Amino acid sequence: MSGTKKKMVVTGTEGQVARSLLERARSIEDLDLVALGRPRLDLADLSSIAKSLISEKPDVIVSAAAYTSVDKAEEDSEAAFKVNGHAPGEIARVAADLNIPLVHISTDYVFDGGKNEAYTEGDITAPAGVYGHSKLLGEQTVREHTTNHVILRTAWVYSPFGKNFLLTMLRLAEGRDVINVVDDQIGNPTCALALADGILTVARNLISSDAPELRGVFHAAGSGSASWADFAAYIFETSRRYGGPFAEVQRIPTSAYPTPARRPANSRLDCAKLEAAHGVLLPFWKQCTEMIVRRLLVDR
Ligand SMILES: NC(=O)C1=CN([C@@H]2O[C@H](COP(=O)(O)OP(=O)(O)OC[C@H]3O[C@@H](n4cnc5c(N)ncnc54)[C@H](OP(=O)(O)O)[C@@H]3O)[C@@H](O)[C@H]2O)C=CC1
Ligand SMILES: Cc1cn([C@H]2C[C@H](O)[C@@H](COP(=O)(O)OP(=O)(O)O[C@H]3O[C@@H](C)C(=O)[C@@H](O)[C@H]3O)O2)c(=O)[nH]c1=O
Ligand SMILES: [Mg+2]
After folding, report:
1. Measuring CA to CA, which residue among 248, 197, 204 is closest to residue 220?
2. Does residue 263's CB lie within 6 angstroms of at least one atom of ligand 2?
3. Fewer CB within 10 Å, N side or C side of the chain?
4. Is the CB of 181 under 6 A from ligand 2?
């Protein structure tokens, strides 16, 4: 990125990805990052979107805020579709009007999980639940409004911030010796801080170049795959090593852990396209898990 300082706006202020971007962007001198959330920007109020975004005069927008409660979305589908489906279209319309690129964050839950290998960007989407459906609509409304976009599908995001599986496991382990965790859903645990580095690279690439091959949908998840039980077991292995809470993981099938939303059995993402086009490859999940657990327990 050359010339003057650029300004990035990310939607949401307290989200894992927004907070990770804020942390990572601090060390980038030619980039200012502003996080825009409620009440100024409320994705459930489409009329608040253009006003608040335009007033920031951004050079690039990262659309990270979303309705992320997968189970709650099943009974609250109107809100989920508005926030995850229609609001991204409005953000994309603004980006098109301002003639700036948009990086929109989507999810592995757009897939039904029936494939035996990792999903590529060209694979057919067929969400299993309302959250996935609403996020898929968001991909479509983004595409409808601007070609100058990157849709980044990520997965199983964890970080030291907010609500996520890693923090839930550490909390549960404070009060239990054994925790039941499903072992027949596999995916790619993704560290939000590493994802933030990837988003920053992608955004800078889009600002610097009009090349069409940099645009479109890309998968962006941590390297290596795991079941939720594998992930939990490694969280506890690491936490125990650093003197933190740990529990024994009892591996169970999904049928023994009923939830309102069905989740994909396999949602592994093939991320080769992102590496080829943008030079972004996210680190191995175990390496990042260890880094986050260490940060929570040792470096605080
Ligand atoms: N978490 C995960 O495991 C995964 C997430 N994703 C996608 O990645 C993106 C980032 O996720 P993550 O950072 O984990 O999300 P979080 O759940 O940590 O944060 C969601 C953010 O969205 C904001 N938000 C929710 N509703 C509204 C609204 N009506 N108006 C404005 N802001 C709103 C929240 O605001 P507030 O702080 O005020 O509540 C919060 O800042 C999302 O698009 C998500 O769909 C994809 C795959 C996996
Ligand atoms: C807390 C807990 C969960 N589980 C199971 C339930 C579920 O199948 C799986 C993960 O549970 P969670 O509710 O933490 O995760 P979930 O809400 O499904 O996470 C998803 O969030 C959205 C936003 C995404 O986009 C996805 O990529 C994915 O990260 O683990 C257990 O087996 N034991 C437990 O004690
Ligand atoms: Mg966020």
Report:
1. 197
2. yes
3. C
4. yes
